[in-house]
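Protein Record: Sequence and Backbone Structure Tokens
======================================================
Tokens: labelled as protein backbone structure tokens, with as many entries as the chain has residues.
Question of interest: how does this chain fold, as expressed in backbone structure tokens?

___
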Amino acid sequence: MAREKEMIAKALKQGQKALSEYESKEFLKSFGVPVTREILARDLKEAKKAAGQIGYPVVLKACAWALMHKTEKNLVRVGIRDEKELEQAFAEITGAAGKGIDGVLVAELVKGARELIVGLTRDPQFGPCVMFGLGGIMTEILKDVAFRVAPLEDYDAADMLEEIQAKKILDPFRGEEKANREVLKKTLKAIGQIGLDFPEVAEIDINPLIIRRDGNPVAVDALVTLAPRVK
């Protein structure tokens, strides 16, 4: 856990209020949270190489810790099919983002019809709490979520999966396999443990966590928000 603590300490020392999307996913991945395959490209040449390694179609996103709402700022391009489209998307994103970005994330395009949300919040009374529910735009519209106070046992995580009203979304769905509940439970437990082990982590927002067609979940977008530790 030394590497992860160093990552948080470095970010805070640099005045960051959050980890970038790339840093957030690297941080979460080290605790067993499944994340998208992606590469941070510093220039167009690196972006082309990354897309070749990952395989088209790909997604491009501007990357910097301060860019917490990239879609609204037109800094995301989805479904890039070839090198020509990549060149255009890279130019558009870097032009719109301006200076101060870490680079451009080149990520796999994850296919799956079901979007979930997993998160961590800190309640003034109960401390770190884990959230699970419907993701994407449905999060704000339906507010179909469940909460548990960390740490989570296996039965806590299992109960959260059953508690949301749309729980049937975890069953076989429109030709897609049932969701891998074991991975979901491990993810919820890991998020709770992070909340206990890292007081500097104020919030975690994984949205969407897409269920692939084979049933396995993957964090497509993630944000780890930071707050200096109170001594």
About this structure: The chain is about 35% helix and 25% strand.
